[in-house]
């Protein structure tokens, strides 16, 4: 079966070999205070920085999921105010989770077909955390980097936090334009779930030191103190970190990865532009995601297509949230092999173009 689900997604083809290697080398039983673990941790962070172009003075550490990152930001970085700009289910969830911990969180919903309008924003306070979902996995939209640059310019004194769960490692992100970025690894990294990466600016670290929040096992300050020694507060997902290291060793620089995925996206766009059963949910190319493709159609046609695909060994992604039955999704992630993408193209051409 080839999975085109946008997370958990098709894992890197070398994962079985890497797992075996980890077992044979005793990595699965490694103590997380040992020198050997610290070296793996250091090397993984170094590879992430070089392959994804993360600024040298940024801090990279590990958590268990993007959801945990939502909670860490809420408990440790949001003092009072946070501003959540969202147009889909994941951005909304982030807002909802934050609201449970910090009741003054404000949500601003915007139209999925529209770009985020920085000019019209009016934040109620001089400080606080602005929360943006860069790639909205539920509806296949993205906030362009140029918008994040504008946001940074307009609000130099706010922290900017970005959920890049379904785009990090799939497209080039200019990390210098925001303070906190995070992603779990079961999307563009092509790894099994249970690990996430958080990337923070020196300003974010300074801010958290000032707040001195230290009441949780995953308090931001506590994690940062540990990662300075390439350690973690609790026994981490050592296998996940090892697999991330091995996968990043073999990944091309992000510019090349992005180019490959863009080309694939153009091919999908061409195919669906000729179908009268299914069309891209998002018409505005400026806000269309490059890594998650969402197709709209009649629920019966979608159900039939998914069933047919399943018979041919292809898993298409279900719609998400309120779009569950009216859409289906295709992951445009780097671990999908050329032949696999070709197989899907062939299947689509045969089954949707009549
Ligand atoms: C998948 C996803 C999440 C949730 O990730 P978990 O690892 O399950 O916590 C959050 N945000 C976005 C944009 C996602 O795509």
TrEMBL record:
Pfam families: Aminotran_5. Pathway: Amino-acid biosynthesis; L-serine biosynthesis; L-serine from 3-phospho-D-glycerate: step 2/3. It catalyses: 4-(phosphooxy)-L-threonine + 2-oxoglutarate = (R)-3-hydroxy-2-oxo-4-phosphooxybutanoate + L-glutamate; O-phospho-L-serine + 2-oxoglutarate = 3-phosphooxypyruvate + L-glutamate. Gene3D superfamilies: Aspartate Aminotransferase, domain 1, Type I PLP-dependent aspartate aminotransferase-like (Major domain). Its EC number is 2.6.1.52. Residues 8-319 form the Aminotransferase class V domain. GO terms for biological process: glycine biosynthetic process, by transamination of glyoxylate; L-serine biosynthetic process; pyridoxine biosynthetic process. Its cofactor is pyridoxal 5'-phosphate. It comes from the Bacteria. Keywords: Amino-acid biosynthesis, Aminotransferase, Cytoplasm, Pyridoxal phosphate, Pyridoxine biosynthesis, Serine biosynthesis, Transferase. GO terms for molecular function: alanine-glyoxylate transaminase activity; L-serine-pyruvate transaminase activity; O-phospho-L-serine:2-oxoglutarate aminotransferase activity. Belongs to the class-V pyridoxal-phosphate-dependent aminotransferase family. SerC subfamily. This is phosphoserine transaminase. It comes from Fulvivirga marina.
